[in-house]
Amino acid sequence: MKPGIYYNMPSNDYHANEAIGSTTVKAISVSPANLYFNPFKGSKSAHIGSAVHAALLEPDIFEKDFILRGDIKTRASREYKTLLQHTDAEKILINGEVETVTQMIASAKMNTDFIDYIKSSGHSEVSMFASCPETGLNLKCRFDRLSNNYTYPLDVKSCCDATERGFSQAFGKYHYHVQAAFYLYVLKLVTGRELNEFCFFALENTPPYKNCMYYIGKDSLELGYKTLFESLRKLKKCIENESLRTEGIVLPRNEINVPNYLLDNEYVDEVYI
Hints:
Elements lengths: L3 E3 L4 H6 L5 H9 L1 H5 L9 H12 L1 H7 L1 E3 L8 H7 L7 E3 L1 H13 L3 H8 L2 E10 L6 E10 L6 E6 L4 H10 L2 H16 L7 E6 L6 E5 L2 H23 L33
Parallel strand pairs: 2-3, 6-7
Antiparallel strand pairs: 1-4, 4-5, 7-8
Helix pairs in contact: 2-10, 2-11, 4-5, 4-7, 10-11
């Protein structure tokens, strides 16, 4: 794929391209073993996230491609199997999934900051391809939404807890700071635009479906860039030397203790009867 911007690339074509995406970079940032021996397989609820993404970012595609059948209670039913003959499984929502997606969409539309961004001039599902000048690796990313009027891209994240504390934990666990740095890096390589802001729209997938617009902090983005370039260099070495891919399987020997909460003072005064 030639370096550049692709506005109407089908999702399947993007994912089939062998260029390196943020998922690969995030995995190897943990360890090479995490990338090569624990490939990303998606989640069981990924189709719900895909449906919400489409409904919010590409409503025409949502209306055309997704089937909502709240009356079908199980995927073992004859009705579901009939639909499956003509539609991909990830495009079929049944039973309580329909209510979940409906409520998530309704929740998102209550956030005026989010709606203002979505309605501004711009494009959704923007694919970009570039070559890293430092490593020579081919890179790719797919922006959920790029506005012409705002100084930051927007990424929609389905989550179980949209509070600051809850989403901060997910932010670290799933290395969203590395994703932000990666996307901004590819954006700069392709367009020459150097942005230092990135927004995540956190949207709960369980009641009450809270949501929030979160803007990555300066320190987190700097850490993301540091981790990004370390990961790209590590990936380059692993491609050139396969023996390095097992790094991270054998952990360094260490001292082990009980969890800290068992050592807290509040447990010292326990009364035995």
